[in-house]
Amino acid sequence: MNTQRLLITPIQAANMLTQNLQNNRPINERVVAKYANEIKNGNWVTDNGESIKFDKNGMMVDGQHRLSAII
User: Fold this and answer.
1) What are the residues whose beta carbons fall under 8 Å from the beta carbon of 19, sequence distance 6 or more?
2) What is the mean pLDDT of residues 14-33?
3) How far is Cα 35 from Cα 40, in angstroms, rounded to an integer?
4) Strand, helix or coil at 61?
5) What is the pTM of this model?
6) Fewer CB near the terminus (10 Å): N or C of the chain?
7) From CA 13, how far away is CA 69, in angstroms rounded?
8) How far is 67 from 62, CA to CA, in rounded Å?
9) pLDDT digits over 26-53, tens only?
10) Residue pair 8/70 in contact by the 8 Å Cβ criterion
11) H helix or E strand, kind and range, residue 2
12) Residue 6: in which H helix or E strand, if any?
């Protein structure tokens, strides 16, 4: 397992989303808006144990809502 702590820009988030697995659930725009508001208002907790996860083939398996909020 490889882990990194990164500051993700909107461009990086968009690039990561291109690796989103097709069988992930649909993006919930209300969740994205909630996360985006938390980020904008300075209330986003970065050390909550949640991460953006990719499988061994480089496909994203967790994090699509958080990345969408960054964009």
Assistant:
1) 54, 58, 59, 60
2) 91
3) 9
4) strand
5) 0.88
6) N
7) 9
8) 10
9) 999 999 999 999 999 999 988 887 889 9
10) yes
11) none
12) none
